[in-house]
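tokens incoming
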């Protein structure tokens, strides 16, 4: 946990602020100032160009390229990688005055300030440009992406000469010639380019996947006149200029419509929209998008905000997390998923990982049900790919990928892609969690049950019985820890396998009873036979869960307790990250843990374990965990809070909300940690708020860190919104609509209605206790 904040951005409850540009933080700032609306995303790069370190990144959800992996001919190892492809730079700008071109890598500037308003999604950058002759121009750049009509975005450039007089030239373009950083080449073919009369259009097609992007822009000027246009194969520009005078204001505004065609099924609508884009842009303006966004974000903050009094750093931090989560995903693009870096960078190739259902889904279930359902729809849409993957691994059913964009397995590390079953069981868990919170039988009947049947088939064929037939389990696997490979009977894997079998059977029985037509459809579509169900029931009943009853310890996998012990505190700090400094096999030869495995299980199914079991397992596994994953500390903080370990809980929480803002891992330049910021939300709501959602009734056991004066959060639950406010002595609970809601607080059932309730925090739950 020897991670140190690298504080650069200024503290503010609703804004992220950068003052006095520092080139050393240029790429970090690009990540932090990324804008997205789920449909598209753009890093906070300087639209006028920057000769220093920069990643001019513009991305569209679901638009990707492929790369063939060489070097392996073994069956079952993925040989193609898919990656989110860097696309058209629809913000491209050039600015010249007094014979100089603005470039913060070379130009002299002062009074630099850049700020992101989380109430609107508006990113503003203002500076004073000092020319070689000492004359100055104040320059303001603004950009915004529409949250209401996600194909639209806008840019506004305002120039105010302070004492400069002379010609200013401005170019605004669409540039598809950018290089994708990881492959060092451009991956687009140009199909069409239009420039003229205040309008630009550029159509591109990916080289290998044949997906298309059409970017159209309408440009208007105030005090500047169009003087020409420029066309290249993958780039179009409009040129403007003016004879500037001191004290006057000159402005250019660009509204953009970006359209994508991911597959042949969307071809007709794509063509229709492209033909009408010029006309549609006549009805879109910067101010309209700003007004729509202000209203959209106002609704989000009204119903989803977390307020912290007495801790301004974490107040800013958690709002940044919530802001980025809604930017990344809110159900606007049906069938999309959440990449590890969202739409903010190219690390992890833009792939979604298995932790979507375990870390991100809880946030959306309690804040955006449509978004939650759409996340699961992605798994239904890609079920056929999961079935193909199962066949490649000599299994029946569906084996979901560890890393993916389109549904195909994109991880070519066989020990992860072939040995980790948790992507598939996490999908089953996600369906269970969604259905439990919503009672959405229609989703279960139309999509969920088919997934569950196919995942259960995979689990049945991937697992096996012991030699004497007494125990069922999984051999040669890798659990969530990822520092133990080819192990037998990983506790998490076996437990989740048993859960999936039993939940699938329970759903089949319920559908047969309550929705017989849906049951018949599922049987017909999947070919499910009752003999399969009988086999799954036996497998579940004989599933081996490694457990030491005397010590109340779940063994991470068979033989884990016999592994050589390593004192992780004795590992030199200079050895981290271990993947970069230790030989690969060295990592696997001891009881060191990368991230929670047994403890992750105890969070997902918290109500199934006693407080005594939780304490025993936490105190055994936590000292062995090096938290090499950014997801790890939040899980430990949540469980430490439950155990009354106040200092540990707050220490682990220490950088949860500011992982990216303060660049704790020194890799924020690559993009934000999307699942980690979802875990930060969990850290407050499930940790300090004490939310438990896996039992028969929703439970909360709030505590308050001694560093805080008060905090509050909101939960969308059963058609209402719960408001929970915690101060030093009491918990205040109310609902927006006054519905009768039953929940449990500190072990006591309460019924909420129109009247707010105040509940005293019992001494046992006060987090000042250690």
């Amino acid at each position: 946990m020897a991670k140190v904040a690298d504080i650069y951005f200024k503290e503010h409850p609703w804004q992220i602020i950068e003052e006095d540009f520092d080139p050393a933080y240029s790429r970090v700032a690009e990540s932090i100032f990324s804008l997205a609306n789920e449909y598209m995303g753009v890093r906070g790069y300087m639209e006028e160009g920057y000769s220093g370190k920069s990643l001019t990144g513009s991305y569209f959800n679901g638009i990707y390229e492929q790369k063939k992996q060489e070097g392996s001919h073994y069956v079952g190892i993925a040989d193609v990688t898919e990656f989110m492809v860097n696309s058209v730079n629809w913000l491209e700008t050039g600015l010249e005055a007094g014979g100089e071109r603005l470039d913060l890598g070379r130009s002299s500037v002062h009074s630099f300030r850049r700020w992101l308003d989380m109430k609107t999604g508006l990113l503003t950058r203002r500076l004073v440009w000092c020319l070689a002759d000492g004359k100055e121009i104040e320059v303001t750049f603004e950009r915004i992406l529409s949250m209401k009509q996600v194909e639209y975005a806008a840019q506004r450039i305002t120039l105010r000469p302070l004492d400069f007089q002379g010609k200013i030239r401005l170019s605004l373009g669409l540039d598809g010639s950018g290089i994708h950083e990881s492959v060092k080449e451009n991956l687009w073919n140009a199909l069409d380019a239009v420039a003229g009369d205040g309008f630009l259009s550029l159509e591109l097609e990916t080289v290998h996947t044949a997906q298309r992007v059409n970017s159209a822009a309408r440009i208007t000027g105030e005090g500047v006149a169009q003087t020409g246009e420029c066309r290249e194969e993958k780039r179009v520009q409009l040129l403007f200029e003016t004879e500037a005078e001191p004290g006057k204001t000159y402005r250019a505004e660009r509204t953009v419509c970006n359209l994508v065609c991911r597959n042949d099924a969307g071809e007709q609508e794509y063509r229709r929209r492209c033909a009408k884009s010029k006309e549609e842009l006549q009805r879109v303006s910067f101010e309209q998008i700003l007004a729509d966004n202000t209203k959209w974000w106002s609704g989000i903050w009204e119903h989803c905000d977390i307020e912290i009094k007495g801790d301004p750093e974490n107040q800013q931090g958690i709002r940044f997390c919530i802001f980025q989560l809604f930017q990344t995903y809110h159900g606007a693009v049906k069938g999309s998923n959440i990449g590890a870096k969202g739409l903010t960078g190219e690390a992890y190739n833009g792939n979604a990982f298995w932790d979507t259902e375990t870390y991100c889904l809880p946030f959306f279930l309690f804040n955006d049900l449509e978004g939650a359902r759409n996340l699961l729809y992605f798994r239904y849409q890609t079920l056929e790919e999961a079935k193909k993957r199962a066949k490649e691994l000599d299994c029946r059913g569906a084996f979901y990928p560890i890393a993916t964009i389109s549904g195909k397995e994109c991880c070519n590390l066989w020990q992860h892609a072939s040995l980790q079953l948790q992507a598939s069981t996490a999908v089953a868990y996600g369906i269970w969690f969604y259905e439990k919170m919503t009672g959405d039988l229609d989703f279960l009947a139309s999509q969920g049950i088919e997934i569950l049947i196919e995942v259960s088939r995979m689990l049945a064929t991937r697992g096996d019985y012991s030699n004497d037939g007494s125990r069922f389990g999984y051999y040669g696997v890798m659990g969530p820890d990822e520092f133990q490979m080819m192990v037998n009977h990983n506790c998490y894997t076996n437990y989740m396998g048993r859960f999936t079998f039993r939940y699938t059977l329970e759903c089949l029985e319920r559908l047969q009873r309550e929705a017989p037509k849906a049951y018949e459809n599922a049987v017909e579509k999947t070919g499910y036979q009752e003999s399969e169900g009988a086999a799954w029931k036996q497998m579940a009943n004989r599933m081996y869960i490694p457990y030491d009853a005397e010590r109340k310890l779940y063994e991470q996998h068979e033989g884990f307790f016999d592994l050589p012990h390593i004192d992780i505190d004795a590992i030199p700090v200079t050895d981290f990250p271990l993947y970069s400094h230790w030989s690969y096999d060295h990592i696997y030869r001891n009881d060191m843990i990368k991230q929670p495995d047994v403890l992750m299980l105890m969070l997902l199914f918290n109500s199934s374990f006693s407080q005594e079991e939780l304490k025993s397992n936490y105190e055994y596994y936590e000292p062995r965990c090096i938290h090499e994953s950014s997801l790890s500390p939040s899980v430990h903080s949540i469980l430490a809070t439950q155990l009354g370990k106040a200092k540990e809980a707050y220490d682990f929480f220490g950088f949860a909300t500011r992982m990216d803002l303060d660049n704790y891992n020194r890799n924020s330049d690559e993009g934000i940690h999307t699942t980690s910021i979802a875990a930060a939300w969990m850290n407050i709501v499930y940790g300090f708020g004490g939310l438990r959602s896996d039992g028969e009734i929703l439970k909360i056991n709030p505590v308050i860190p001694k560093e805080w004066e008060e905090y509050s959060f909101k939960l969308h639950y059963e058609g209402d919104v719960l408001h929970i406010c915690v101060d030093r002595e009491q918990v205040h609970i109310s609902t927006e609509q006054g519905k009768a809601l039953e929940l449990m607080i500190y072990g006591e059932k309460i019924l909420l209605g129109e009247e707010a309730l105040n509940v005293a925090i019992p001494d046992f739950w006060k987090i000042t206790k250690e």
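note: The radius of gyration is 27 Å.
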